[in-house]
Amino acid sequence: MGRSSKDKRDIYYRNAKEEGWRARSAYKLLQLDETFHFFEGVHNAVDLCAAPGSWSQVLSSKLEASDGKIISVDLQSMAHIPGVMQLQGDITKETTANKVIELMDGKKAELVVCDGAPDVTGLHDMDEYIQAQLVLAALNITTHILKEGGTFVAKVFRGKDIDILCKQLELYFDKLCLAKPRSSRTSSLEAFVVCNGFHMPPNCRPSLFNPLLNPDSCLQWDSLTEEERVVLPYVSCGDLSGFDSDCSYPLNMQGHAPYQYREPVQPPINPPYEHAVKLKRANMLQQP
Ligand code: SAM
User: Could you tell me the pTM of the whole model?
Assistant: First the structure.
């Protein structure tokens, strides 16, 4: 009997169906743990960007205590997983972050994972940027709910700006490692950053305050400690009574020499419009 086109998909897809995982991504988390053993001693865990839920399934089957909490968050709704509390929301929104913190009910997690992926646009720079923003949003929530010494695992794209993201994560963790599980396609830039030994940087407190996301929150600047805010000096230079670069001035102005057209000091070399100008001139010459 012939196989349906879906059955021809890769071995991890087929195995996931056979073994009851909702997505082939389950193997990525399992294989990461084979190397890093981050499930050891975990009672409470949070799965950010969890739908359809295979990572939450893995957490629910691997975690040690039945009295622990597993919280899953995603933009999309998810079918119920026994032992997992679900929250539908956007992890970049302060309201969702607050709800996750509320659901933790004062408890701290030993592990936070994030397999978040934005809808890809195909524009690599844009996709990498949005992916990095998701990781930073996940980190923001993590600073509120992860135990000191805890582990954070997140999907990243190993693009040209990965070092900047890692430098930001390094501020919060003792050790970082980028890992590529066997089940992650070689052709994809996808990798996972495994961050061990969580700690807040000295004199910083967890905060959801983000002046870029909440323009109205400018007033909160005063509540930040010196280490939490960086204010670069912004200085106006030159003669303040000089010409304003945003204004238009007449060609002939009182107190100035009469206007006279002058060729540019250095005309552009081989400008792209030159060809079009030539064509236009030739065309005009042909016309009666
Ligand atoms: N780990 C999941 C599993 O094993 O089933 C797969 C996660 S899937 C690759 C990526 C998920 O990220 C999608 O379900 C998407 O809805 C979610 N996502 C993307 N942006 C999000 C956001 N801003 N807030 C919450 N979830 C988001």
Answer: 0.78
Q: Is 155 a catalytic residue?
A: yes
Cross-strand bridge partners of residue 192 = 155, 179
Q: Is 263 in a helix, a strand, or coil?
A: coil
Q: Is 84 close to ligand 1, i.e. is its CB under 6 Å away?
A: no
Q: Is the CB of 142 under 6 A from ligand 1?
A: no
220: DSSP letter: G
Q: What averages of pLDDT result for each successive group of 10 residues across the chain (288 residues)?
A: 58 94 97 96 95 97 82 96 94 88 90 92 85 91 94 93 92 96 92 96 77 55 70 75 88 93 88 88 74
Instruction: Write the residue with the smallest CA distance to atom 9 of ligand 1.
Output: 117
Q: Whose CA is nearest to atom 16 of ligand 1?
A: 75
Could you tell me which of 70, 11, 78 has the C-alpha nearest to residue 51? 78
- Interstrand relation of 109-114 and 146-157 (parallel, antiparallel or unpaired): parallel
Domains by residue range for the chain, with CATH: 5-286 (3.40.50.150)
- On the question of a cis peptide bond just before residue 52, with omega within 30 degrees of 0, the verdict is yes
Token pair for residue 282?
């030739």
What's the CA gap between 226 and 222, in Å, rounded? Answer: 10
DSSP 104: H
